[in-house]
Amino acid sequence: MYRSHSCGELRASDINKEVTLSGWVQKTRDKGFMIWVDLRDRYGITQLIFDEERTPRAVVEKAKTLGREFVIQIKGTVIERESKNKNIQTGEIEILVNELTVLNEAIVPPFTIEDKTDGGEDIRMKYRYLDIRRNPVKNSLVFRHQVAMQVRNYLSKEGFIEVETPYLIKSTPEGARDFVVPSRMNEGQFYALPQSPQTFKQLLMVGGMDKYFQIVKCFRDEDLRADRQPEFTQIDCEMAFVEQEDILNTFEGLTRHLITEIKNISIGDFHRMTYNEAMQTYGNDKPDIRFGMKFGELNKAAQHKEFKVFNDAELVVGIAVPDGASYTRKEIDKLIDWVKRPQVGALGMVYVKCNEDGTYKSSVDKFYDQDDLAKWAEITRAKAGDLICVLSGQTNKVRAQLSALRMELAERLGLRNPEEFAPLWVVDFPLLEWDEETERYHAMHHPFTSPKPEDIDLLDTKPGEVRANAYDLVLNGNEIGGGSIRIHDKETQALMFDHLGFTPEEAKAQFGFLMDAFQYGAPPHGGIAFGLDRLVAILGGQETIRDFIAFPKNNSGRDIMIDAPSNIDDTQLKELNIKLDL
Amino acid sequence: MYRSHSCGELRASDINKEVTLSGWVQKTRDKGFMIWVDLRDRYGITQLIFDEERTPRAVVEKAKTLGREFVIQIKGTVIERESKNKNIQTGEIEILVNELTVLNEAIVPPFTIEDKTDGGEDIRMKYRYLDIRRNPVKNSLVFRHQVAMQVRNYLSKEGFIEVETPYLIKSTPEGARDFVVPSRMNEGQFYALPQSPQTFKQLLMVGGMDKYFQIVKCFRDEDLRADRQPEFTQIDCEMAFVEQEDILNTFEGLTRHLITEIKNISIGDFHRMTYNEAMQTYGNDKPDIRFGMKFGELNKAAQHKEFKVFNDAELVVGIAVPDGASYTRKEIDKLIDWVKRPQVGALGMVYVKCNEDGTYKSSVDKFYDQDDLAKWAEITRAKAGDLICVLSGQTNKVRAQLSALRMELAERLGLRNPEEFAPLWVVDFPLLEWDEETERYHAMHHPFTSPKPEDIDLLDTKPGEVRANAYDLVLNGNEIGGGSIRIHDKETQALMFDHLGFTPEEAKAQFGFLMDAFQYGAPPHGGIAFGLDRLVAILGGQETIRDFIAFPKNNSGRDIMIDAPSNIDDTQLKELNIKLDL
Asked: What family name appears in the similarity comment (chains A, B) (predicted)?
């Protein structure tokens, strides 16, 4: 038996017990006649003491040879600690050691195993198994487990059944890129790894499973933007005999449960907003509603004068920055520089200071009088002391720019309270979006999303205006889940494929099995999928998802610890009936 | 709202309630003035009644058009049923319908959606979504979910953390075959899908996670024997600071919990047996110990006479068949034919009838006298009335043959009680096994399994006799789990790779990251993995695992429902930098 207790377990009430502990040497302090060792395991740290008077001489000698991260086992007696440490749970006791076994030695680790380490990202990824020993990473993984358990137990109690869908499926040319897997037994043919279990969960609904969920890995072979992974985990859910309202209520319940159980924070009703309202009010389909600075559209109030920049713009829109009127000229110039950075891309920014005395001072005083500016203040809800920032240009671009500015200012002003959780449903997404590159409409969500019945007639005339039964769940400015009510009849599905540019033959070859299934009594159904990696990071109060993934890949899709992907040998290629074509 | 209740929910206490139900038409009985419809969903069946006197005429007319598997919604009143059906939980009530909506029509399904269907395996696989509507499949999937939840909650309470390990890993030439995945971003390189998360879970132990588990898909691209799948699910577990005894106790706890909770059966202590004992006593390393018929080795008692067949054999071994002495000559001939089938492969069988009067009658009376046969009876534990079956030949072969005969007879004699669960630990597996084809030793478990310290010296002299710290959990003749205490130091791991025929360079290229990790303070560790598909099938009292997998593949590794694997187009191949080589 390697241990009688963990290193986080012993308390004052255990004093005088004979115990056996195992763990890693966190640090040693050698005072000559006395040696202290902090022994660490997953559960905590316990202080060991080797004392020349009370510990056998040979054991003391051996203790002097211990280095950082050695794995040891000790036997000893729990004694009261002289200088208690209130910061750790075992801080009232220490172990007077009388036996010491070195279970494994350790060479010096490439970075310190401390909460604040001296190791950079790359070295920590290469030695991820050492990084995991650090509390921030270890705790994130434990936290992820707890969230996943809460999700499973909640959904299970609500009658959902977790069903495993296959990983070796069929490649689809639609959407982001598939990872493919050559089949040895079926020469020249390939499986694909699922980008999501979408069609399978719909087939489970056709199969009468009624309420399905799965915490499942999904795969996407695309250029990795920061904080994306080629393999990622979804909480994938589907329900039969539901309308949008049923889905929203069910997953409002799940989200509330998580925030309540995990964060011990009670939250009010979930806000709801249409996609159009979100775009108009926040310039963004995943607005952070923990703070205001709502957009005020100024076209009417600003396009009646001689200011050509505004008059030529598709959209003129502003936000009021709380207490921004006190910004110096230099500070405002910096803000203008910020919006002109290539990442944001604005050409300039107009500002209006709302003075405490009720007057206005703007960068466009040449064109606009006090009444004009008062009107702007009213529209942007600016109070005396605020600063109005106004951008103009092509609608989609200017919304994105002002949204970026709004988020940046909120961050600087400390308006994004990490202890506050403000969930929001964004509903009524467009069914289709125009793709400039391919010059055709794409499904904004996916081709299985149902259009709103009252908008179906617009499919032929104004396809861009057709609204879908689609919804996103947004938490503090992050999309944490998205879903839709699906098409469940063969005709509508065929119509949809037609509008997405599939020939009937292509549709049949790719999704014939689904359209066939719809003929045998498909129930109305819909669902949602949450990105677990991001959800856990947000609940954990972190920005980056990597610490919540045990073995993440880097931006090139490489696992630098195991050095994958890698070359495979010719025999293997031959057996798979493929060759390289570089 | 599609429904106020499910189809399995309403009881006599709900009489007079106005309800809305949705579901599938299981069957209709049209008596002209009255129509009954059985409405089905996941939760049960509720009888609907359309009554010319009490139901609106148009509704009755519409009800006459309903076909099997139509999806409908009805509103009506819960009333008391005239002829109650005690077999179903809703059998005391029926719904007097006054509104009917057809949500989706259905064409005639290719097989009946009944517990006993008329559909063969192939057609049911092609239309798996219809097969899932049938109770046997649906209930198996629900059962699987319940088992998985029990596993997760039990292990979680025991302090295990579920950690997701990557699916896109590195290909290893060792062991069964990898599925590989070409990387678009890393030209000419490949990921592999994991055959198991073995090295990752060991790295998690090096990383101090202490107790890990994961219910995880694993992949093996090999010829599929009946009831194997290219993707399969494991309950993968690992613990640090443990000896074999700790692992056996922990997972004895899990298995006991499952059998108690799921089957409501309490079981006694788990038996233990060494690999050698299992092979000698049952001819098999996964013996079904619910019944006797233990092997009796007869070399000493049978090789002293002129019977050349026995004298030339490496092993002469028999079992006693309870009450087999009454078998007719014809029945015994049939048994002899059975063992001579190519699947079993014996050349013949010697038998001894143990007559009720204490005398013996054998097929080798020419060579052996009554004293000899009495001795055989003693060794095989045969009682008066039993039949002794004796096989002889090369040890491994004859053991396999007699083991097959033992199982067959037990099946015929009804000795394999499906309500009994008799778990057994088989321990002390050999570390290495000789492979005739490659003419070298292979790791019997895997290259990370530790040898028993007292046997290490045999590695150079008698490698086949080195025992490993490896164990299997066997349930009713099926291996449901297997594991080992791992090597945790670089030197032993290098020694092991050396004995498996790796050059140091090959070992470093493949597993350098693991051996590196062992230098930084690796704790002693070990683990186990359970095959969830089989475990669930056995707990569910079934022989085949397919019904417990939502979308299984056939023996050629094909998903015939979605028609995968399939061809992919040239553009896709080009982007992946590969071409076909048929």
From this structure: Belongs to the class-II aminoacyl-tRNA synthetase family. Type 1 subfamily.
pLDDT digits (tens, 9 = 90+) for B219-276: 998 877 767 899 999 999 999 999 999 999 999 999 999 999 999 998 888 999 999 9
Smallest CA-to-CA distance from A214 within A156, A169, A257 is with: A156
Complete domains list, chain A, with CATH = 12-104 (2.40.50.140), 139-271+424-548 (3.30.930.10), 291-416 (3.30.1360.30)
Rounded-to-integer distance, Cα B202 and Cα B518, Å: 10
CB spacing of B40 vs A148 below 8 angstroms: no
Q: How many CA atoms lie within 13 A of A54 on its CB side?
A: 12
Q: What CA–CA distance (Å, rounded) separates A561 from A68?
A: 22
Q: Which residues are CB-contacts of B16 (< 8 A; sequence separation ≥ 6)?
A: B77, B78, B79
Closest CB to B208 among A133, A161, A577: A133
Q: Report the alpha-carbon distance of residue A28 to residue B466 in Å, rounded.
A: 40
A133-143: burial string, b at 16+ Cβ within 10 Å, e else: bbeebbebbbb
Identify which of A164, A553, A558 has the shortest CB distance to residue B550: A164
B51-65, B172-186, B236-250, B310-324: which range is least confident on average? B172-186
Radius of gyration for chain B, computed over Cα atoms and rounded to the nearest angstrom: 30
DSSP state, A550? S
Tell me which residue of B407, B397, B378, B382 sits closest to B319, measured CA to CA. B382
Measured over the CA atoms of residue B397, residue B401, residue B402 and residue B407, the dihedral's sign is positive
In this prediction the ipTM stands at 0.95
Q: What is the DSSP string of B519-551?
A: TBTPPPEEEEEEEHHHHHHHHTT-S-SGGGSSS
pLDDT in tens, B432-471: 998 888 888 889 989 999 999 999 999 999 999 999 999 9
**What's the CA gap between B473 and B535, in Å, rounded?**
11
Nearest CA in chain A to B145: A162
Instruction: Place B286 in a pLDDT band, splitting at 50, 70 and 90.
Output: very high
Q: Both tokens of residue B51?
A: 């009554």
CA pair distance B526, A128, nearest whole angstrom? 20
Sheet holding B161-162, edge to edge: B161-162, B211-219, B231-240, B525-531, B478-485, B470-475, B423-427, B271-274
Instruction: Give the whole-angstrom CA distance, residue B509 versus residue A226.
Output: 29
Question: CA B159 to CA B210: how far, in whole Å?
Answer: 9
Q: Best interface-test mutation with B: which of A41, A242, A493, A580 has the largest number of B CBs within 10 A?
A: A580
Tell me the Cα Rg of chain A. Answer: 30
Up-side HSE of residue A70: CA atoms within 13 Å toward CB? 20
A388/A318 Cα distance (integer angstroms):
6
B533 marked among binding-site residues: yes
Predicted confidence at residue A226, as pLDDT, reads 67
pLDDT tens column, B510-527: 899 999 999 999 999 999
Interchain proximity B170–A562, CB inside 8 Å: yes
CA B107 to chain CA mean position, Å: 36
C-beta atoms surrounding A362 within 10 Å: 19
Q: How far is CA B101 from the centre of its chain?
A: 44
Residues 6+ apart with CB under 8 A from B448: B198, B199, B202, B484, B486, B487, B493, B496, B514
For an interface test with A, give the residue of B117, B520, B545 to mutate (most A CBs within 10 A): B520
Burial of B375 (0-12, 13-18, 19+ CB in 10 A): middle
Report strand pairing: A231-240 vs B161-162. unpaired
Nearest residue on chain A to B23, judged by CA atoms?
A523
- Contact between B360 and B370 (Cβ < 8 Å): yes
Q: How would you classify the pairing of strands A180-182 and A161-162?
A: unpaired
Q: In this structure, what token pair is assigned to residue A458?
A: 């617009």
